[in-house]
Amino acid sequence: MSNEVVLDIETQNTFQEVGGFKTNLLKISVVCAYFYETGTYECYEEHELGKFYKRLELSGRLIGYNSLGFDLPVMNNYYAGDFLTFQNLDLLKEIHKSLGFRLKLDDVAAATVGHRKSGHGLQAVEWWKQGEVQKIKDYCIQDVKVTKDVYEYGKKYNALAYEDRLGGRKAIPVDFSEKVEDEKTSINLSMGF
Questions:
Q1: Domains of the chain (ranges plus CATH)?
Q2: Which of its termini does the chain have fewer beta carbons within 10 Å around, N or C?
């Protein structure tokens, strides 16, 4: 049984509001994840992150889309350790490695698995300001589902897809298998307060 975790975060604020690309100034509204070990989707609000982080410390590989550039650095704002040292798979990094350029998750998902995300992250910030946390959770869970579908397709077929500027479907060779050097020993870094 796999103990990988697919995750996505939403924030309370934007880069524009914090004066540029400063992940250390972003605040989390919601983190949602799919736990392969239990087959469950779960969401955690900012005040519940300690509970979520304890689960991640005992998990296997962390999987996300732009997780190395966004999700994990923002999560580090609330964590005594460093999620960037955890075993991870950033789907966007693998796509960039294969193609030499970046693609939106929405475009990869549409061409690869036939469905798109339900919105965009800026909507989630507006919902936060309006106090509509359930809408954020619903949106974030949908992002996790789309990421999971793309990951599973890539793992099974060693390829993803995108549409080029002429509307043609192009393959993206990927290798999502776990590497031996990626293995880590779970360690509890959280203090139980």
A1: 5-93+121-157 (3.30.420.10)
A2: C
